[in-house]
Design a protein that fits this description.
It contains 9 helices and 5 strands, in the order H-H-H-H-E-H-E-H-E-H-E-H-E-H. By secondary structure, the chain is of the alpha/beta class. Strand 1, helix 5 and strand 2 form a beta-alpha-beta unit. Helix 2 runs parallel beside helix 4, helix 3 runs antiparallel to helix 4 and helix 6 packs across helix 7. It starts with a helix and ends with a helix. The structure holds CO-5-methoxybenzimidazolylcobamide.
């Protein structure tokens, strides 16, 4: 039986070597990769967030925890299943301008790739004009915007406005997500959809294609 709480503790303690060891042991014991991701890594990162908010963990430690998590996500990546989306679909994904959080966005990117889409991961701190330029360059059909800060959520609206102004709104479906984002916010800013997590983001993107 996999001890997911030990993984959470290793992540909270920023102990990358221990975390990697626990993930590899769990995989050797046939624990499903998706359970390791959700019950070990994401659950641990939620505690990191709570501690950060309470002032019990500081930025350098949170960065170390993020690095340990990214390392383990890399191990799980090939195991999270591969499907065929049925057609070549160019997807752009990026964290909006002013926001440097990338773990969730990278998970969404990974799940969409696993679902057979061609994902162009633009990175973090991406301005509206860069999204517009990349839609043209990559001939994108889906644009995914990620934001983790309440202060950067308005940048999602500014990005959508820029896409409208560039005359590209009919070419792309726009999805938004990130911890503070809600369906109501997505509706308010004129997005085509919202997904609360990486798995449902990939599923929703497939419905948009079809
Ligand atoms: Co930041 N941070 N942070 N941080 N950080 C939060 C978001 C915060 C909630 C922590 C807290 O106070 N409890 C808080 C925001 C408060 C608010 O806005 N209301 C916060 C703050 C305040 C800050 C700083 C301002 C702190 C400071 O400097 N004083 C600063 C801002 C920097 C900036 O961006 N300009 C900052 C910095 C950082 C670090 C750099 C140290 C680090 C990021 C490292 C990195 O990403 N490489 C960091 C981290 C790690 C966090 C927490 C602890 C964890 C975020 C995370 O990776 N979660 C976070 C607290 C928390 O969320 N519990 C916090 C795991 C990840 C898998 O979940 O990203 O939610 P998440 O992604 C999910 C879904 O949201 C969804 O799918 C993902 C997977 O299921 N999803 C999408 C995400 N994007 C999507 C896009 C889609 C669809 C779904 O498109 C369609």
């Amino acid at each position: 039986m996999t001890d997911f709480s030990a993984m959470q503790d290793a992540l909270i303690n920023c102990d990358q070597d221990k975390l990697v060891g626990l993930v590899n042991t769990a995989l050797a014991d046939d624990a499903p990769a998706v359970d390791i991701l959700n019950q070990g890594l994401i659950a641990g990162m939620d505690v990191v967030g709570e501690r950060m908010e309470e002032g019990d963990m500081f930025i350098p430690e949170v960065l170390m925890a993020a690095k340990a998590m990214a390392e383990c996500v890399g191990i799980l990546r090939p195991l999270l299943g591969e499907e065929d989306a049925g057609q070549e679909t160019n997807v752009l994904i990026g964290t909006v301008k002013g926001d440097l959080h990338d773990i969730g966005k990278n998970l969404v990117s990974m799940m969409m790739e696993s679902a057979g889409m061609t994902v162009h991961n633009l990175g973090v701190d991406i301005g509206p004009e860069d999204f517009v330029a990349q839609i043209k360059e990559k001939d994108a059909r889906i644009v995914c915007l990620s934001a983790l800060l309440t202060t950067t959520m308005p940048m999602m609206k500014q990005t959508i406005d820029a896409i409208v102004e560039a005359g590209l709104r009919d070419q792309v479906k726009i999805m938004v997500g990130g911890a503070p984002v809600t369906q109501a916010f997505a509706d308010d800013i004129g997005a085509d959809g919202f997904a609360p997590d990486a798995g449902s983001a990939a599923k929703f993107a497939k419905t948009l294609i079809n």
